[in-house]
Design goal:
With about 240 residues, the protein is mostly helical. The chain is about 60% helix and about 5% strand. The protein has 12 helices and 2 strands. Strands 1-2 form a two-stranded antiparallel sheet. Helix 5 packs antiparallel against helix 6. The two termini are about 20 Å apart. About 40% of the residues are buried.
Length: about 240
């Protein structure tokens, strides 16, 4: 059972990349060939920022930045665009906007969270954990980032059964709830953590805390698994 992330959504107006950037397909470097496919990978697939800017066309990033008060402002706009497209299911477009936000300001934590959410769809959570860890380094008290990291480590624990991931995941979730006790999704994930620890009473307690904050946080697949281990003490789920 893999329980999904809660995706926080940001709204902004549509701004398409220029035709020149869309047509550019390949830039050869001394060490490797960089292709347009890199634009659809988080952080351009790990290539250097200068190579990534080459994919968008000479001077394009600077031209975009000049339309805003600062590069940081431009980055916040495009990271918001990334969340907007992600909410609409346009993942490739979301990646391009978040990658552009990264080129504009590599210290924008929302870039890493957005790309981490996208990477969470991969078969393993390793890339998501790496991206979210980078984001957390820039925003150590970001409750959403902490909750996402906690969730990612629980997913990896479920796959590998390494207790370090379970302990680490619980630590991040505890920090997330300390920063925002009303994070319903974090409570549900804490319930999952207690489930993995076979502490089903505490799992139900966490589930009900999340439910009382926001009913939409409930993952009914998880509830079914929990019910198989222990009836709901409050009798709300049967």
């Amino acid at each position: 059972m893999k329980y999904p992330f809660f995706v926080a959504l940001a709204a902004a107006a549509l701004l398409a990349l220029p035709a020149q950037a869309q047509r550019k397909t390949k830039v050869k470097t001394k060490d490797e060939a960089v292709s347009a496919a890199n634009r659809l990978q988080p952080l351009f697939g790990g290539i250097a920022a200068a190579q990534a800017e080459g994919l968008l066309g000479p001077g394009y990033v600077e031209k975009v930045a000049a339309s805003f008060g600062s590069r940081a402002e431009a980055s916040r706009f495009f990271s918001g665009k990334g969340y907007e497209y992600l909410s609409e299911g346009q993942v490739d477009t979301a990646v391009t906007r978040l990658n552009l936000a990264w080129l504009l300001d590599a210290k924008n934590p929302e870039v890493y969270r957005g790309l981490g959410i996208i990477a969470s769809k991969n078969p393993t959570p390793d890339q998501a954990i790496d991206l979210l860890t980078q984001g957390l380094a820039l925003a150590p008290e970001n409750a959403l980032m902490l909750a996402d990291l906690g969730s990612s480590h629980l997913i990896r624990y479920e796959q590998t059964k390494k207790k370090k991931d379970l302990t680490t995941g619980i630590g991040y979730l505890q920090r997330a709830l300390a920063a925002d006790p009303n994070n319903a999704i974090a409570w549900q994930q804490m319930g999952l953590a207690h489930y993995f620890q076979e502490d089903y009473a505490k799992a139900w307690e966490a589930v009900h805390k999340g439910q009382n904050i926001n009913m939409t946080s409930i993952d009914f697949n998880f509830i079914s698994d929990l019910l198989a281990k222990m009836p709901d003490p409050e009798g709300k789920f049967k």
